[in-house]
Amino acid sequence: MKPRKSTAILIATWVSTFVVYLFVKPADGTTTEPVTLINSVPSWVNPTQ
Q1: Please, what is the end-to-end C-alpha distance for the chain in angstroms?
Q2: 20 to 30 Å CA-CA from 35: which of 2, 3, 4, 21?
C-alpha cells in the first residue's frame, strides 16, 4: 500500500523535526535557576519621583 503524497510530507516533517530536536536540545544537567519577577519594577518606572 503506497501512502498518499500528503501523508508522506507529514511523516517527513515529523521525522525532520525530531532530528533537528536531537541536534539542538540542551545538555542534561545544565538547568539554571529561574529568575523571580515578583515585586520587580521596570527600569523606566520610578515611583519615588
Answers
A1: 75
A2: 21
Closest by CA position to 13, among listed 25, 5, 24, 23: 5
Q: What is the pLDDT along the chain (49 residues), one digit of tens a residue?
A: 787 999 999 999 999 999 998 888 766 666 667 667 666 766 666 666 5
Half-sphere exposure of 37 (CA within 13 A, CB side): 2
**b/e string for 8-28 if b means 16 or more Cβ within 10 A?**
eeeeeeeeeeeeeeeeeeeee
